[in-house]
Amino acid sequence: MEFQEHTVLIVDDERNTREGLRLSLEDEFDIYVAANISEAEEILKNEKVDVMVTDLRLGGENGMDLIQKTLSRAKAPVCILMTAYGSVDVAVEAMKKGAYDYVSKPLNIDELEIVIKRAIRSRNVEEENQALKAQVTERFGLENIIGQSMVMKPVFDTIKQVAPTRATVLIEGESGTGKELVGRAIHNLSGRPTSKLVTVHCAALSEQLLESELFGHERGAFTGAMERRIGRFEEANGGTLFLDEIGEIDLNVQVKLLRAIGERTIERLGSNKPIKVDVRVVAATNKDLSEMVKEGTFRDDLFFRLNVVSIHMPPLRTRKEDIVLLVDSFLKEFAEENGKGTMELTNDALQLLLEYDWPGNVRELRTAIEHGVVMANGSKIGIRHLPTFLTDDSHRGFRQKPAAGTSAPSTKSDESLIDSDDLNLARIEQKMIRIALDRTGGNRTEAATLLGISRRTMQRKLKEMGLIDG
Ligand SMILES: Nc1ncnc2c1ncn2[C@@H]1O[C@H](COP(=O)(O)OP(=O)(O)OP(=O)(O)O)[C@@H](O)[C@H]1O
Ligand SMILES: [Mg+2]
């Protein structure tokens, strides 16, 4: 009964075998039969088949070919091969090619039935796994961008939305929040994956060098221009140009950049021949460009050009729930890089990471984990293996009240629940009671409610702790 709805396709060139199998199996499964490869393919094309059982010899055709072709389909059924008694090596060959199992002829119907049921179960597990994997990528973001916090959701949504378009994107956010990572994701998801991603770090170059970097120059365009040089716009033609630290560029270069983006035309330095370029521009900055526009240090027309779509990268301290995921990923990365096995943080080390403010954001966290992996001797990374800035108090958010709108766990304003490696249950219990009393301003009834215990139990525990008499 359980397998009633599953569909089995039987492929055999002998009519008697086909019909015999149909009769013996049709109580358990939905049965289709085919006499040759093309009949089988016709059925596979039109029906959802869970399991295909095929004979090895199909007249002049070969069941192995059918299996191979079938397994390359998008929704391939599980394949079982029927072979003449004794040809085990052929069967093994079939399994190497991806067949699920084989049965020998003459057939034992009970055995075949068991194999088919097992095949169906394996297929269900496989499907579940795939669904789970799809869900995981969905939840954990795009490309290599890790994060499942609510504040990251609009980031992922916007990337997905704009990537396939040609729209200019401005990515804003503090240093180390992942702006470059997002730029790369937009390029990778642009649907032009064979095209190039070219990055220019605008802050690193003087005005003239930046200009020639972007637009190229003719020989002799300026002192030192010995050779003609193609600029980054031309290099990125057909692809994406990532302009990092766009807030640093000089007003003069801003004018030229505006023209290049607006008119899709550039001129090399020392030439006035316009060159057409088809480039998608993604810009990033850790400055507040709209503020710079007000101050007159950034052109408003360029700002509007760049800001067709903007993505705000949230600081790490506003998405602390992502820290655990990021830590996991960085632990794996650096453990592998340093030839170490599985590494993990002690509870108090992890807690320290959760309490810290991360002014350098994800980059700073990444470096801290690398430090820990390198410094630890065994597989456990403790507080003493982490960088010392984590233990001086200046950036420890838990000393202050959490800022409004942060989604940090509420325990962060309390002293650490699990101190050092003290896992003594009685002591932890007492600590929880003290925290509950603190939070409720000493109101025992409210504290009991918070702890999920009765008022009487609370009384008893307080007595045991010597906090009340009686
Ligand atoms: N969400 C994330 N998931 C995984 N790794 C991340 C994430 N965000 C940032 N990183 C990593 O942190 C480091 C810094 O990221 P990135 O260079 O993209 O930051 P940025 O915003 O461009 O910083 P800056 O303004 O200093 O240039 C990189 O190693 C990057 O891979
Ligand atoms: Mg960057």
Descriptive keywords:
470 residues; alpha/beta; Rossmann fold; Helicase, Ruva Protein, domain 3; five-stranded parallel β-sheet; 18 helices; 18 strands; flat; binds adenosine-5'-triphosphate; binds magnesium ion
Question: How are the SSEs placed, and which strands pair?
Answer:
Layout: E1 7-11, H1 15-25, E2 30-34, H2 37-46, E3 51-55, E4 57-58, E5 61-62, H3 63-71, E6 78-84, H4 88-96, E7 101-105, H5 109-139, H6 153-162, E8 169-172, H7 179-188, E9 197-201, H8 207-215, E10 216-217, E11 229-230, H9 232-235, E12 240-244, H10 251-263, E13 265-266, E14 275-276, E15 280-285, H11 289-295, H12 300-306, E16 309-312, H13 323-337, E17 344-345, H14 347-355, H15 361-375, E18 380-381, H16 425-439, H17 444-451, H18 455-464
Parallel strand pairs: 1-2, 1-3, 3-6, 6-7, 8-15, 8-16, 9-12, 12-15, 17-18
Antiparallel strand pairs: 4-5, 10-11, 13-14
Strand content: 5-15%
The level 1 CATH classification of the largest domain is Alpha Beta
Instruction: Catalogue the unreliable spans.
Output: 398-415
Number of strands: 18
Mean pLDDT across all residues, rounded?
85
Kindly report the spatial arrangement of strands forming the biggest sheet.
Answer: 2-1-3-6-7
Biggest sheet character: 5 strands, parallel
Structural class comes to alpha/beta
Report Rg.
33 Å
Distance between the termini: 66 Å
CATH superfamily grouping of the largest domain: P-loop containing nucleotide triphosphate hydrolases
CATH architecture of the largest domain: 3-Layer(aba) Sandwich
* CATH topology descriptor of the largest domain: Rossmann fold
Number of domains: 4
